[in-house]
Design goal:
The chain is mainly α. The protein has helices spanning 2-25, 43-53, 55-75, 92-122, 127-153, 155-162, 169-211, and strands spanning 31-33, 38-40. Strands 1-2 form a two-stranded antiparallel sheet. A hairpin with a 4-residue loop joins strand 1 and strand 2 (38-40). Helix 1 (2-25) runs antiparallel to helix 2 (43-53), helix 3 packs antiparallel against helix 4 (92-122) and helix 4 packs antiparallel against helix 5.
């Protein structure tokens, strides 16, 4: 009976976090349109969900984020949307590559964040350290996996889209990581610390109350 109640609370909590992901993904706060690519804050609830509810919940939330990204890039395509939408791919391998970049890489955000948080807690790291570090790593996972996958899987198409030579792609990828990924990771570290401290206390109180 206790396990059933715990599982129900877990599913409800995941559903609530997923709703936040969907809300952010469909507002300017979640998907910030830049000239070349869409910067995002949608990974924040994915990371926090992974911290509060575990890597499995993080994977689910990351998948929700990925599907939202896929839909956004399909409905409102940008220069690089071919890398995120299987519907814009020209062949079957392109479909699989787009699915990996849009959904697979986002699932990894939750998985990496969840297990990184568990590892830091086993090391008895203070939440004041563990939360921002997990936020930073989780956010960087998104940027590195997405941009790294574009480089490895779609380098030629990326070069054509940007109108540059193939040997210039690496420099452009690193410029995106530096200009967009690092600021996103720093912002994630701050937000995960601020929100995570409050939510950790809330979840502990809820868990304690449920045991009474």
């Amino acid at each position: 009976m206790e396990k059933s109640r715990k599982d129900t609370r877990w599913m409800v909590s995941v559903a609530l976090m997923a709703a936040i992901v969907i809300l952010l993904a469909n507002t300017p706060l979640g998907m910030i349109q830049l000239p070349i690519i869409k910067a995002t804050t949608v990974h924040i609830p994915v990371i926090i969900g992974a911290i509060l509810l575990g890597p499995a919940a993080g994977a689910i939330l990351g998948g929700v984020f990925g599907i939202c990204s896929l839909i956004s890039n399909t409905m409102a395509p940008t220069l690089l949307s071919f890398a995120f939408s299987p519907f814009l791919a020209s062949d079957f391998p392109g479909v699989l590559k787009a699915l990996w970049i849009s959904v697979g890489c986002r699932i990894l955000i939750g998985v990496v964040s969840g297990w990184f948080w568990i590892a830091l807690k086993k090391m008895k790291a203070s939440p004041w350290i563990a939360l921002p570090v997990t936020g930073f790593i989780g956010s960087l996972t998104n940027t590195v996996c997405v941009m790294g996958s574009i480089y490895l899987l779609l380098s030629g198409q990326y070069a054509n889209a940007r109108g540059v030579a193939a040997d210039a792609v690496w420099g452009l990828i690193m410029a995106t990581v530096t200009a967009s990924g690092i600021p996103e990771a720093i912002a994630a570290a701050i937000l995960v610390l601020a929100l995570g401290k409050v939510l950790l206390v809330f979840f502990r109180k809820q868990t304690a109350a449920a045991r009474v």
